[in-house]
Specification:
By secondary structure, this protein is mainly beta. The chain has one helix spanning 74-85; strands spanning 15-21, 24-27, 31-45, 54-69, 91-98, 106-112, 115-116, 132-139, 141-146. It has one domain (14-146): Phage tail tube protein (Pnp Oxidase, Chain A). The model has no long low-confidence stretch (mean pLDDT 94).
Length: 154
């Protein structure tokens, strides 16, 4: 039996992130963290002759969160544009995990059709050395563009 090589564990700091807002591709140099999750919705299925109900996946919901440094007006502009024009742009985010110290390669995930839950349009905080903001969102589609290779065990 082999063991996972510690060098193949992916560093959370290694990779890239790009946000596409209405076709404009913007590097997310201001990103502190990003997480997107697909939650499977299940329904109970009673089965004749079985005392326990079985489960069946009946749908899914995409939710996520990110924390960004307050060094961009991209998100505030989305909120103000909605107030003034009544439109929300199409938003996709591509996250690539790419640790050069790992032999498993890279993984790229495209999170599609993001809708932001709330947007900070102005902020001051005299007790904070840096300004950041938490952004929660939903999404309705995703693609796995690149996959990690299987690690070689030591």
């Amino acid at each position: 039996m082999g063991f996972l090589k510690s060098g193949d564990v992916i560093s959370g700091r290694e990779g890239t992130a790009f946000i596409t807002i209405d076709g404009r591709n913007v590097p997310m140099f201001f990103l502190k963290n990003f997480e997107a999750t697909i939650e499977l919705q299940k329904g109970e299925v009673p089965v004749l002759g079985k005392r326990m109900n079985q489960q069946k996946v009946t749908g899914a919901t995409g939710t996520g969160s990110m924390t960004i440094y307050k060094v961009t007006s991209e998100f505030a502009k989305i909120a103000i544009d909605y107030l003034k024009k009544g439109t929300v742009p199409a938003i996709n985010v591509k996250i690539t995990n790419d640790d050069p110290a790992s032999s498993i390669g890279r993984q790229s995930t495209l999170v599609k059709n993001i809708l932001l839950d709330s947007i900070v349009i102005a902020k001051l905080d005299i007790e904070s050395e840096t300004l950041d903001e938490d952004v929660d969102f939903t999404f309705d589609d995703a693609d796995l563009l690149e996959q990690f290779k299987t690690p070689t065990l030591g």
